[in-house]
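Hey, I'm writing a tutorial for new members on how sequence and structure tokens pair up, and I'd like a real worked example in the thread rather than a made-up one. If someone can provide the structure for the chain below, I'll link this post from the tutorial.
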Amino acid sequence: MHRSHAMPRPTSRLVPRLATGLVGAALAASGVLAAPAQAADGAADGADRRIVEHRVRAGETATSLAVRFHAWTDELVARNHLGRHAALQVGQVIEIPVVVSATRGHHHRHHGPATQPPAASPDPVVPGRERVRRVVARTAVRQGLDPQLALAVAWQESGWRMGVRSDAGAIGALQVLPGTGRWMELYAGRPLDLRTLADNAYAGTRLLALLQDETSSTRRAVAAYYQGLGAVRRHGLFDESRPYVRSVLAIRGNLEAGRPPA
């Protein structure tokens, strides 16, 4: 998905100043993020906005709601006249301008084994594991993310291989779904080609960094990478997620100790 020219450009290292990122409210149907409140009679703010009414609950902020509902914080603040500090009151009803185009094409993060090659790759040579390791680690550092954690997730997902695609369509070393790639384009400010190592590493590490920031827990962030942030928030770790999390953390321990990942 190409960026809308009308949309502000994210500016911070991990979470855009304007939005803490655009995160998919439309992922709610598949459990990736929490479901939006009922729309206000289909009202829209321009061709690419859908207005959702929401009653503020304890602990919610303008930024966290922008993350949850796939909106820009600046737009949410301006629409509700929240002022410089974007203060919210429990019980207050606000309108959230959901970015419609950025919610299309997402589906559940959970997927099957990464065994099938992509239909095509723009790289003349599929990168080997050592190059995947270097690029993922370097990209993670740029995101302010523990590179060993990123490498552990990449090993769990693909064994540090780029030329794989899961049966759910997840692509490459970090097994990024196309819908997630479109979401991460909003952070990158440009289209991403998940078949390339650089863009795949960017999308996967950006997602993981965002999840860690949102959960304030490495264990929950890893679980959210597998089962979805909304599902983790509502239900905690699914039984099927626990072996995944244990495996990722064990791989990270091996890497930190200078041992092979597995």
